[in-house]
Amino acid sequence: MIWLNNAATTYPKPQAVRDFVKASIDQMPVSDGRSSLQGKAELEDARCIAASFFGARKAGQIHFLSGATEAANLIISGLGIGKPPVLATSLEHNCILRPLFSRLDESQIGIVHPGSSGRVRPSELSSFAGAKFFFLNHSSNVTGAVQDAKGLFAEAHRLGMACILDFSQTAGTFPVDLEDIGADIAFCACHKALLGIPGCALLYLRDSSLVKPSFFGGTGEHGDVLDMRNSGVFEVGTMNQTAVSALACGMRFIQETGAEKVFDSVSSKVMHIKMELSGLSRIRLASPLEGPCSNAVSFVLDGISPSDAAFILRDSYQIIVRSGFMCAPLAMKDMGLVEGAVRVSPSYLTSDSEIQSFIDAMKDISRSLE
Amino acid sequence: MKVVSVSSSPDLCSEAGWYGFDVCISEPMTEASVLALKSLGHLVYLSSLKKPFFVLKSESVFIKGTVGSLSFRIGLPSDDLAQATHYACIVAGYN
Prior knowledge:
The complex is a heterodimer.
Chain A: E1 2-3, H1 15-24, H2 37-53, E2 62-65, H3 68-78, E3 86-89, H4 94-103, E4 109-112, E5 133-137, H5 149-158, E6 162-166, H6 178-181, E7 185-189, E8 201-205, H7 241-257, H8 259-278, E9 283-285, E10 297-301, H9 306-317, E11 319-320, E12 322-324, H10 329-334, E13 341-344, H11 352-369
Parallel strand pairs in A: 1-11, 3-4, 3-5, 5-6, 6-7
Antiparallel strand pairs in A: 2-8, 7-8, 9-10, 10-13, 12-13
Chain B: E1 3-8, E2 19-25, H1 31-36, E3 42-46, E4 53-57, E5 62-66, E6 71-76, H2 81-94
Antiparallel strand pairs in B: 1-2, 2-6, 3-4, 4-5, 5-6
């Protein structure tokens, strides 16, 4: 089987990640400071690598959680969002949209839409003056288009909004400097292009007082303090040390390979796929050809549904892609894709021959639809 | 040809809005059995693919698979294993 669903989860992982995870089950358990110094050291090592990787000023601005969905819920419940409206783009993933729409009245949520390039223009934000929080998906998991986060956040700050960035799709595929972008809060999943394993997300808080903790439990420190509402502690309970250390292995792999080399490789594979698909009949790209993009390329076919196309690719060509709404219902609605789309997404470790197999399969399918 | 098994498909996401069922059959699907499905609804048949693909769609069911395969998928608007088995037997009867 050929795995081209790397925007969901990367496969394969680098050898170092695989070796670490296999070995971890045989190691004596460690946890963050409670049962061994080694666990604490590994955790702080991962925190330092992540801080350096994403331009955080201090390692303490990085917190590890169990996943991006937990991070998004923690942020939304901890911001103290009240009456003032919040603003989000229509490109957000359901990990943001569902907590927002489940906690707030629809009238409190402003939605800003991208233009035809798949990108939101900073000037669009002025229509939503009065909003206190702005949620931005750095790169849509459908179109892959990378947003001008720095420009958008500068404008949002000017309008008095706090800025929250979901960089799950750009982390590991595109340079991200959170301090330079001006993110107040940011989060990403770590099992995608950061090459870690599921069970870990990274939360960045420029200032830990921006978000109130909403999960409480053991932390291994100050065990006699019972009221933790103002503690600024977000890592509670038993840490998924294996996933955090696997993330560190993945980020080290990217650093040792050369981040620029990794980003360029992914970008060139994505552009190659787009150029090939755009030349085929009965296929329409839902991802922009122009501008910076992460590793997601979506498209639809005239004559068969996205799920049928994914079925053919898997059953006849042993290629796994993603199809459907991809947890991004508003983005699909923007593009009029009532049955969703097909998404193909390579990673740094996807081989050229695997991409060629996909292109050959798409040529076959395109011809069969003529 | 016999129906060997009918089970709920674990592949929920790709068939949004439908309940998927995977059907295993005792003999490979043939082109004749695919073309016979026309009586049940709108049939798309991509015969020139290396493994010819078919999908039958109506308001109450979809059936899709490839010629030569020992399985196919049924989609229903409700989680109704008995109804899925009913359709599986119809397809098997065509083969």
